[in-house]
Amino acid sequence: MSSFSRSAQQWATFARSWFLIDARQQPPGKLATMCSVRLQGKHKPIYHALSDCGDHVVLINTKHIAFSGNKWEQKVYSSHTQYPGGFKQVTAAQLHHKDPKAIVKLAVYGMLPRNLQRRTMMQRLHIFPDDELPDDIRANLTEELQQPRKIPRKLSEYTQEEVDTFPRLWTPHEDYKMK
Fold it and tell me: At what angle do helices 28-40 and 102-111 cross, to 10 degrees?
Protein backbone atom coordinates (compact mmCIF):
# COMPACT_ATOMS: atom_id res chain seq x y z
CA MET A 1 0.00 0.00 0.00
CA SER A 2 2.84 2.39 0.76
CA SER A 3 4.33 1.92 -2.71
CA PHE A 4 1.01 2.96 -4.29
CA SER A 5 0.82 6.18 -2.31
CA ARG A 6 4.51 6.87 -2.97
CA SER A 7 4.03 6.44 -6.73
CA ALA A 8 0.93 8.65 -6.66
CA GLN A 9 2.84 11.29 -4.73
CA GLN A 10 5.74 11.06 -7.17
CA TRP A 11 3.39 11.43 -10.14
CA ALA A 12 1.75 14.46 -8.54
CA THR A 13 5.17 16.02 -7.97
CA PHE A 14 6.38 15.58 -11.55
CA ALA A 15 3.07 16.24 -13.35
CA ARG A 16 2.34 19.70 -14.73
CA SER A 17 -0.52 21.32 -12.88
CA TRP A 18 -2.74 24.14 -14.13
CA PHE A 19 -3.20 27.03 -11.69
CA LEU A 20 -5.91 29.68 -12.01
CA ILE A 21 -5.29 33.21 -10.69
CA ASP A 22 -7.93 35.96 -10.67
CA ALA A 23 -6.26 39.32 -11.40
CA ARG A 24 -9.25 41.49 -10.47
CA GLN A 25 -8.10 44.52 -8.39
CA GLN A 26 -4.59 43.04 -7.95
CA PRO A 27 -1.25 44.78 -8.50
CA PRO A 28 0.66 43.40 -11.52
CA GLY A 29 3.91 43.01 -9.55
CA LYS A 30 2.38 40.67 -6.97
CA LEU A 31 0.69 38.67 -9.72
CA ALA A 32 4.00 38.42 -11.57
CA THR A 33 5.85 37.03 -8.54
CA MET A 34 3.17 34.37 -8.00
CA CYS A 35 3.22 33.42 -11.68
CA SER A 36 7.02 33.30 -11.97
CA VAL A 37 7.33 30.95 -8.97
CA ARG A 38 4.78 28.55 -10.49
CA LEU A 39 6.19 28.81 -14.04
CA GLN A 40 9.72 27.99 -12.84
CA GLY A 41 8.54 25.18 -10.56
CA LYS A 42 10.10 26.68 -7.42
CA HIS A 43 7.11 25.58 -5.35
CA LYS A 44 7.98 21.90 -5.99
CA PRO A 45 10.44 19.88 -3.87
CA ILE A 46 12.17 18.60 -7.03
CA TYR A 47 13.09 22.08 -8.31
CA HIS A 48 16.45 22.50 -9.96
CA ALA A 49 17.53 25.48 -12.03
CA LEU A 50 18.41 23.33 -15.05
CA SER A 51 15.24 21.20 -15.02
CA ASP A 52 12.03 22.27 -16.70
CA CYS A 53 9.48 21.34 -14.03
CA GLY A 54 7.22 24.42 -14.03
CA ASP A 55 3.44 24.39 -14.22
CA HIS A 56 0.85 26.17 -16.34
CA VAL A 57 -0.63 29.42 -15.02
CA VAL A 58 -3.94 30.84 -16.23
CA LEU A 59 -4.57 34.52 -15.45
CA ILE A 60 -8.10 35.85 -15.83
CA ASN A 61 -9.60 39.36 -15.50
CA THR A 62 -6.39 41.17 -16.47
CA LYS A 63 -8.58 43.98 -17.78
CA HIS A 64 -9.33 44.87 -14.13
CA ILE A 65 -5.81 45.08 -12.62
CA ALA A 66 -5.04 47.86 -10.14
CA PHE A 67 -2.04 50.11 -9.65
CA SER A 68 -1.44 51.98 -6.41
CA GLY A 69 -0.99 55.72 -6.36
CA ASN A 70 -0.73 57.53 -9.68
CA LYS A 71 1.15 54.76 -11.51
CA TRP A 72 -1.35 54.64 -14.38
CA GLU A 73 0.07 57.97 -15.57
CA GLN A 74 3.58 57.87 -14.06
CA LYS A 75 4.75 54.37 -15.04
CA VAL A 76 6.31 54.43 -18.51
CA TYR A 77 7.02 51.45 -20.77
CA SER A 78 9.83 52.07 -23.26
CA SER A 79 10.87 50.36 -26.47
CA HIS A 80 13.19 51.09 -29.38
CA THR A 81 12.84 50.03 -33.01
CA GLN A 82 16.65 50.11 -33.55
CA TYR A 83 16.20 52.84 -36.14
CA PRO A 84 17.26 56.45 -35.58
CA GLY A 85 14.48 58.29 -33.77
CA GLY A 86 12.70 55.02 -32.99
CA PHE A 87 12.49 55.45 -29.21
CA LYS A 88 8.87 54.94 -28.07
CA GLN A 89 7.43 55.62 -24.62
CA VAL A 90 3.91 54.67 -23.56
CA THR A 91 2.24 55.22 -20.17
CA ALA A 92 0.63 52.31 -18.35
CA ALA A 93 -2.87 53.68 -19.06
CA GLN A 94 -2.19 53.91 -22.80
CA LEU A 95 -0.69 50.42 -22.94
CA HIS A 96 -3.57 48.95 -20.92
CA HIS A 97 -6.13 50.62 -23.19
CA LYS A 98 -4.38 49.23 -26.27
CA ASP A 99 -3.87 45.68 -24.90
CA PRO A 100 -5.26 44.69 -21.46
CA LYS A 101 -2.92 41.67 -21.28
CA ALA A 102 0.34 43.51 -22.01
CA ILE A 103 1.13 44.96 -18.56
CA VAL A 104 0.83 41.62 -16.77
CA LYS A 105 2.72 39.83 -19.53
CA LEU A 106 5.61 42.30 -19.33
CA ALA A 107 5.67 42.06 -15.53
CA VAL A 108 5.87 38.24 -15.59
CA TYR A 109 8.46 38.31 -18.38
CA GLY A 110 10.63 40.63 -16.28
CA MET A 111 10.39 38.35 -13.23
CA LEU A 112 11.56 35.21 -15.03
CA PRO A 113 15.28 34.35 -15.21
CA ARG A 114 17.12 35.65 -18.26
CA ASN A 115 18.08 32.36 -19.89
CA LEU A 116 16.99 30.08 -22.73
CA GLN A 117 14.10 28.60 -20.72
CA ARG A 118 12.37 31.97 -20.45
CA ARG A 119 10.42 31.57 -23.71
CA THR A 120 9.34 28.06 -22.79
CA MET A 121 8.07 29.26 -19.44
CA MET A 122 6.17 32.13 -21.09
CA GLN A 123 4.41 29.61 -23.35
CA ARG A 124 2.90 28.06 -20.21
CA LEU A 125 1.40 31.42 -19.20
CA HIS A 126 -2.16 31.84 -20.45
CA ILE A 127 -3.62 35.35 -20.07
CA PHE A 128 -7.27 36.31 -20.59
CA PRO A 129 -8.68 39.84 -20.23
CA ASP A 130 -12.09 38.57 -19.03
CA ASP A 131 -13.25 35.61 -16.97
CA GLU A 132 -14.24 33.61 -20.05
CA LEU A 133 -12.00 30.58 -20.59
CA PRO A 134 -11.87 28.11 -23.49
CA ASP A 135 -13.26 24.68 -22.67
CA ASP A 136 -9.94 22.86 -23.17
CA ILE A 137 -8.18 25.09 -20.63
CA ARG A 138 -11.10 24.94 -18.19
CA ALA A 139 -10.94 21.12 -18.31
CA ASN A 140 -7.22 21.14 -17.38
CA LEU A 141 -7.45 23.41 -14.31
CA THR A 142 -6.38 21.69 -11.10
CA GLU A 143 -6.21 24.47 -8.50
CA GLU A 144 -7.24 28.08 -7.97
CA LEU A 145 -4.69 30.20 -6.13
CA GLN A 146 -5.68 32.78 -3.56
CA GLN A 147 -5.38 36.42 -4.61
CA PRO A 148 -2.27 38.14 -3.22
CA ARG A 149 -4.21 41.18 -1.98
CA LYS A 150 -7.61 41.29 -0.29
CA ILE A 151 -10.11 43.24 -2.38
CA PRO A 152 -11.61 46.15 -0.42
CA ARG A 153 -15.40 46.33 -0.39
CA LYS A 154 -17.25 49.28 -1.90
CA LEU A 155 -19.33 51.53 0.32
CA SER A 156 -22.48 50.32 -1.44
CA GLU A 157 -21.69 46.73 -0.39
CA TYR A 158 -21.93 47.54 3.35
CA THR A 159 -25.26 47.19 5.13
CA GLN A 160 -26.77 50.18 6.90
CA GLU A 161 -26.11 48.52 10.28
CA GLU A 162 -22.39 48.21 9.51
CA VAL A 163 -22.24 51.85 8.45
CA ASP A 164 -24.02 52.99 11.64
CA THR A 165 -21.80 50.90 13.95
CA PHE A 166 -18.58 52.09 12.31
CA PRO A 167 -16.68 54.34 14.78
CA ARG A 168 -16.96 58.04 13.99
CA LEU A 169 -13.78 60.10 13.92
CA TRP A 170 -15.71 63.34 14.00
CA THR A 171 -19.31 64.18 14.78
CA PRO A 172 -20.58 67.49 13.45
CA HIS A 173 -22.60 69.79 15.70
CA GLU A 174 -26.31 70.33 15.04
CA ASP A 175 -26.12 73.53 12.98
CA TYR A 176 -23.35 72.23 10.67
CA LYS A 177 -24.39 72.24 7.00
CA MET A 178 -23.13 69.54 4.64
CA LYS A 179 -22.47 70.67 1.09
Answer: 50
Helix-strand-coil split of the chain, %, nearest 5:
40, 15, 45
Q: Where are the beta strands (DSSP E) in 33-132?
A: 56-60, 76-80, 87-91, 125-127
CA 138 to chain CA mean position, Å: 18
Tell me whether residue 124 is exposed, middle or buried, using C-beta atoms within 10 angstroms of its C-beta: 0 to 12, 13 to 18, 19 or more: middle
pLDDT tens digits, residue range 136-177? 999 999 999 999 999 988 889 999 999 889 998 888 888 888
- Look at residues 152, 149, 101 and name the one whose alpha carbon lies nearest to residue 128: 101
- The pairs formed by 154-158 with CB atoms below 8 angstroms and a separation of 24 or more are none
Specify the pTM.
0.84
Q: What does DSSP say about strands 87-91 and 76-80: parallel, antiparallel, or unpaired? A: antiparallel
